[in-house]
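Newbie here. two chains, one complex. Structure please?
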Amino acid sequence: MWKWFHQLASPPHFYRISAILAPWLAVPGVILIAYAAWQGLFVVPMDYQQGDAFRIIYVHVPSAYLSMMAYMIMATSGAIGLIWRIKLSHAVAAAAAPIGAGFTFLALCTGSIWGKPMWGTWWEWGDPRMMSELILLFLYFGYMALRSAIDDTTKADKASAVLALVGIVNVVIVHFSVEWWSSLHQGQTVFKKGTMDADMRIPLLIMLLGFTLLFGAMLLRRIRTEVLFRERRTRWVREMILSPEGGA
Amino acid sequence: MKPRQQRMLAVGLAALGIAIAAGLTLRAFQDNMMFFVEVSDVVAGEYPKERNFRIGGLVVGGSMQRDEGSMDINFEVTDTACTIPVQYSGVLPDLFREGQGVVAHGRMGEDNVFQADKILAKHDEDYMAPEVADSLSKHQQDIQEAVVKGAAECRPNDS
């Protein structure tokens, strides 16, 4: 088991394994998302208060969940890279940032689109949930800017890992903001009993799983690119490129 | 101690320090983090008097009054313990209903009526189909009762 882990941490080995693994995440992910989207848009009954507008939940909640999940992956792999000096884990952190920023942006946009007809406002400054999610987006931007500002990859890895670790505080705030303080945003629904009919909840859970799988596939693709770039001067990359298969 | 363990300790201690610092900061700014003030706190006089603020609560059932031929609306907001009358002129959000959550932005008038310049509807965490909602009318009644009961008890002019 440990041997397998150590092997996976070696860039050439990871590069080979991830090529096999990525489609096994992407294909089921797309199928689940397509199924849940069809269910959510056409099969699930409308909400008794919000009517059809509630259907945006099937994009909003998975995006918001992944915006935090991607950050935790980014920060955790940064910490692992700091402590154990595993090169691959810094590549994972670097690869996760833009995807996380994308999902954060999606969560903010879908929330805003829903907020206009339901709350009566696109955006409310001072709402703890909205503010902390916006700060999360800025943290991603800051993280990516810091990385690209430092030319030395080792230094960039260390500095950005520290930034990511400090920013975990904000992820905790995003999660608990609706419980700790009064907020315009409603409280927890997805994993709380009795808040949502089963025929509405199940497609949402399928959507969450589908988004997670697709995120996994996107992350793997990005890590591969990152690894290839970081290892561009090594022998295994050169050999792979020059081999008859051309490094597929 | 091996260098790896030293690094682990350093990261661990730094994380702990940041967590404590963040916890203390948030505790100090507790009041500023609130999006709205509870109705009971407003009635108790605990609200910013020199600036606008938001109140949040449920719209009291049967309290809504519209002026004919104008945009003026009067209604009452309760947190099921206390109630505040609210005056507003403008367009209401779709989700604004009696018995539903609402957030009003404005300031407390001399006459203890909250003068709102902006009304937002607050949605709760419950999602259900219309048929299911009808069968849950007992639950709805409980809320309504609490909302109406709140209307009878404490009000700003009492204090």
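Moderator note: The radius of gyration of chain A is 20 Å. Chain A has one domain: 28-242. Thread marked as resolved.
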